[in-house]
Amino acid sequence: MPILGNTTGNTIGSNSGTGSISLNNTNTSHIISYGIGSNAASSTVNISNNSIGSITLNSSSVDYVHNFTGIQVSNGTTVTIDKNTIGSTTTTNSINATNASTSPSGQYVKGIVNSSAATITLSNNTIANMNNNAAGLGEVLGIESTNGVNTIKETICIILRFHPATVLQQPIQ
Q1: What is the pTM assigned to this prediction?
Q2: How far is CA 129 from the centre of its chain?
């Protein structure tokens, strides 16, 4: 059973400030950085009491995005994501994608992402002060869960910023 954090928890970056970890995309392709990732097939996954913050994401070209996900779960049978903090409740742009990307694929910053078919419980998490400086397409999401049986409770998502130069709207079809 993968346990990431549990009682004591891990700190990735810092609980305050900006840029204690600086991740740079110098490739001529798009990249994704993760705070915590789990791909534990046929397993119980517990990701608890972790802190992910003070992370700056850079890219050497506006043509190539630097995406970020705080916690990513893509497999498992039973998943618990509890009492984690992604970003900071007091520091602006705690997780900051600085690239003014114009890529048509879009740049994203996400707090928690689940794509597993698991029974998943997300509770008591805080996602705050994440920023995406993309100049074109992009998104900032607190929680994205596209699969499984989900229970999401007592989770706070605050101050999620996206600064596009142009906002595109598409009618519902």
Answers
A1: 0.88
A2: 11
Q: For residue 123, what are the β-bridge partners?
A: 82, 153
* Distances from the Cα of 126 to the Cα of 2, 51, 88, 107, angstroms: 22, 10, 8, 22
**Is 72 inside any structural domain?**
yes
Residues 53, 50: Cα–Cα separation, whole Å: 10
Query: What percentage of the chain's residues is helix, strand, coil (to nearest 5)?
Result: 0, 50, 50
Quote the DSSP letter at residue 59. E
pLDDT per residue as tens digits for the range 30-81: 989 999 999 887 788 999 999 999 999 999 988 889 999 999 999 989 999 9
Domain count, the chain: 1
C-alpha separations of 68 from 8, 111, 142 in Å? 24, 8, 12
State how far the Cα of 105 lies from the Cα of 20, in Å rounded to an integer: 28
User: Domain containing 61: what range?
Assistant: 3-162
Q: How do strand 21-25 and strand 156-162 relate by DSSP bridges?
A: unpaired
Please report whether residue 68 resides in a domain. yes
Q: Is residue 105 part of a domain?
A: yes
